[in-house]
Amino acid sequence: MPIWKKASALFAVLLLVAASSACTFGGSSNTETVRVAEVTRSIFYAPFYAAVAQGFFEEEGIELELTTAWGGDKAMTALLSGGADVSLVGAETTIYVYAQEASDPAVTFAALTQTDGTFLVSREKLDSFSWEDLKGSTFLGQRKGGMPQMVGEHVLKKNGIDPHNDLTLIQSIDFGNIPSAFASGTGDFVQLFEPQATLFENEGIGHIIASFGTESGSVPYTGFIAKQSMLDENPEMLERFTRALYKGQQWVEQQPAEEVAEAIVDFFEDTPVELIAQVVERYHAQGSFATSPIVQEEAWDNLQLIMEEAGELPQHVDYDILVDTSIAEKVME
Fold it and tell me: Which of 127, 152, 164, 254 has the fewest CB atoms lying closer than 10 Å?
């Protein structure tokens, strides 16, 4: 069963819950508490953490209550059920919700990342690399139907590789166990997130040879999402939220990777600041961090193309239905 059907079945139940749930805010008259459910904890989200660490949300009168959901379905569950006011998650989840004819759809109002965040890592050091090198190999991919795997397959096809016939594709390993599986000898190539890709390269376990983010182009990979009712009823709060985020985006764009790493290191227990700096530099160099909160229409179209190609697009949805740039545009005036 396509992942969108499984996700849609879950969201259908959640929509019933969400219909009777109301978003609430705490704090004093001068400060609003905004509950944010992030899909995971990742250096990929550095501009957001930098905005927190630099006090930009405080400056806007916002106290964040940040929880890590560890999964796109869980992050969206928190939003739809009223357990979060804002969700940091992939834009594809809004399409799954919309496909269930939601009366209060989830809408992306601010961009955070604008490319895929995974890298192709080879076991052997290659003096030169061609995508043809993957033919006949064993490729350790990501979970079927997830955005990383959809992007991975899109990039392989773009480069003339049939992922289901030209190589042995392994998708049966849990996300958290993929790095250890590769380290223990499974696969000739693996698709990895950071900081694991850079860590493996530093330790000589593998070698980064290509970026799926660079190859796949601009995609609204992760952004801030709220229910339409929140956009209608509390745009002023979301404007302050987005202004704080934009300050963080601009700060990260202007600072050296080492300074960014120092600012966000407390968000990553047991991760050396030097490794964080390496990852920030790599993401910055390939343009993964959105430098403004505006989600571009071209990126939205590319997202749906990737989903459709993977057989995971329940229906095509116009950009202006599930993307609201009005707040971001106002912040940037």
Answer: 127
Distance CA 278, CA 258 (A): 8
Write out the DSSP string of 21-46.
------S-TT-EEEEEEESS--GGGH
Per the listing, tokens 């919700």 go with 97
My answer on whether 94 and 178 are in the same domain is no
Give the integer Cα–Cα distance in Å for 179 and 189: 11
Residues 282 and 141 in one domain: no
Place of tokens 């698709």: 191
**Each residue of 305-318: b (16+ CB within 10 Å) or e?**
bbbeebebbbeebe
Residue holding tokens 């459910």? 37
- The secondary element (H helix, E strand) that includes residue 119 is strand 118-122
In whole angstroms, what is the distance from residue 239 CA to residue 217 CA? 28
Q: How far is CA 181 from the centre of its chain?
A: 23
- Residue of 49, 99, 40, 106 lying closest to 79 (CA atoms): 106
Q: Residues 273, 275, 276, 281: is their CA dihedral positive or negative?
A: positive
Domain shared by 230 and 205, yes or no: no
Query: Residue 48's domain spans which residues?
Result: 3-115+219-331
Other beta carbons within 10 angstroms of residue 90's beta carbon come to 25
Our count of domains for the chain comes to 2
Q: Are residues 211 and 225 in the same domain?
A: no
CA 118 to chain centre: 11
pLDDT in tens, the chain (333 residues): 555 555 555 554 444 444 433 333 333 347 999 999 999 999 999 999 999 999 999 999 999 999 999 999 999 999 999 999 999 999 999 999 999 998 999 999 999 999 999 999 999 999 999 999 999 999 999 988 789 999 999 999 999 999 999 999 999 898 889 999 999 999 999 999 999 999 999 999 999 999 999 999 999 999 999 999 999 999 999 999 999 999 999 999 999 999 999 999 999 999 999 999 999 999 999 999 999 999 999 999 999 999 999 999 999 999 999 999 999 999 998
CATH assignment of the domain containing 142: 3.40.190.10
